[in-house]
Design goal:
- By secondary structure, the protein is an alpha+beta fold.
- It has two domains: 239 residues, Biosynthetic peptidoglycan transglycosylase-like (Penicillin binding protein transpeptidase fold); 285 residues, Beta-lactamase (3-Layer(aba) Sandwich), CATH 3.40.710.
- Helix content is 44%, strand content 12%.
- The chain is built from 23 helices and 18 strands.
- The protein has a five-stranded mixed β-sheet. Strands 7-6-18-17-16 form a five-stranded antiparallel β-sheet, with helices on both faces.
- A hairpin with a 2-residue loop joins strand 17 and strand 18.
- Helix 4 packs across helix 12 and helix 6 packs across helix 8.
- The protein is elongated, with a radius of gyration of 35 Å.
Amino acid sequence: MSSNTLRQKRQTSDQDPLLHFAGAVGKVTGGTLLGMTMLISSVFAGGLVGLAISFRNLPDVRVLRSYAPTETTHIYDIKGKLIASLHGEANREVVPLDKISPHLKRAVIAIEDSHFYQHHGVNPGAVVRAFRANWSEGRTVEGGSTLTMQLVKNLFLNPKQAFSRKLAESVLSMRVEQIFTKDQILEMYLNQVYWGHNTYGAETAAQSYFGKPAADLTLAESAMMAGLIQAPENLSPFVNPKAAKQRQQQVLNRMVDLKWITASEASEALKQPLKLGKITSFQTSQIPYLTEATVQELTRKFGRDAVLKGGMRVQTTIDTKFQRMAEDVVKAGHESLLAQGVYADQMALVAVDPRTHFVKAMVGGVDYHKSQYNRAIQALRQPGSAFKPFVYYAAFASGKYSPDSIVDDSPVGYPDGYEMYYPQNYDGSFSGPISIRQALAMSRNVPAVKLGQEVGLNKVIDICRTLGIRSPIEPVVSLPLGAVDLTPLEMAGAFATFASNGWYSETTFIVQVTDSSGNVLLDNTPKPQLVLDPWAAAALNSTLQSVIESGTATSAALDRPAAGKTGTTSSERDIWFVGYVPQLAAAVWAGNDDYSPIGYGATGGTYVAPIWRNFMQRALQGVPVENFRPASDFPRPQ
């Protein structure tokens, strides 16, 4: 119903406030109460004049022109499915007045301020009626506040019940009515008012109590919601259904008295079965590991307050069905490890699209309900030999080496602090002269350490930074063997740049962020930059294909070209496989949170590569086979 129609109904169905006041006073017996009423009216009027003189001490209501109430932030998957809602104390979604059911607007005005469209912020008749009722009962049983006064109290004043505050409410309310239309005030009120269970505003309350938008509320639902405003927690149908029903009837009766609905409409609404929704405040996320990672990224860009109160609409890079598949793979993979005697209590998986650097799946642990620690983005673990590709890329980018170049796999020692460091291969043997392709495929340690010294460890670190790795890295001699702590997300993101032949975008969980009005706050449309030498990247891709075709990760073989690297740390504390095809890169890690060994002889190639293969086979169903571009397509660096 429009405001004009509502105003006309009100004018034809209820007394003028002054006539109502006169009639009410006329019914009072005895001169004492009449005298007190006149005295209170005089004090009230005088107080208004006195307080009006001190305007400078009151807030400037013009700030409401740009006022943005705190709103709940909603996080969605890439297809628009709601994953989580985040808020502080106030769970609120702001909507325009025309998105709120006319039934609710009428019901709220009827029970809270039936003269709303007649007064100018203060209703003297209501004040007198409240005084009479409270005097008669000897306690506060009725309030004289208008909707405008309630709005002002909530926005500008503290809840302390004092006469001076009531006067301040009155002055501020009249100011508000001078600046804003009635519809604007009603819209602010309905978006601001508290409806119980940390739910603020009509839209969020409607979604919570009835599982539907405020625009779709029926008369019966609207009457029950309007009745909650008086005492939301005590009258909540979730807490006290009987009291909520009684209050609903009071609202409907009031609407009948005002002739805004008929008695039959009220009777029908009262009989209507109500299907309750569920409390929406502080609900757990559908994908908690993803939600936490997204919140971290949002907080870095906008700050914590903006995330919890800014009403953001966040589209993530994750497809929920794809994510569930990844979670299933991790769960099954973990069970498989335990069945094989590999005692790793945790796993993590991260998948990144090399074309966009969007995170497509992220699993931070075997079971979030048992452990909320997100190993995919928080656990700094040594990657072991999975770090070697950074060294080999540096060698190729120097122009001095190709996959067919020969390195000497023989004993060597290097000063390392006050001691000498003698790198050893996993099996304790040496192969002598060996091609780089074979050295990487068989994960020989000594050639990697020698190449690290040859190209310079600081150069290797620079390449890691270029690929988006931000964790601390020291240029220790054993760095080429993975003597550094990195996260699975960093590894997956870096290998995704190899897969794209050197094109890099910042790895992200977020596609876009808008405010509740649709204004774009963050647009992560990929803007790839070529950060690696294309020939060197292609040469590395070719060499890493040999790891899967004939090296330590034959158990990762797919029905399409794939590249990757196994990783196993000393004492078998961490086992990895990080691999990719042109359309998808993924890192899988397994280990124990307390860094204890997971089992003698456990390697990434034997135990983790099959889990990676299982994930990739499922992830790539229906995805066309693509080949890596050969190094011959690019000029070799000089």
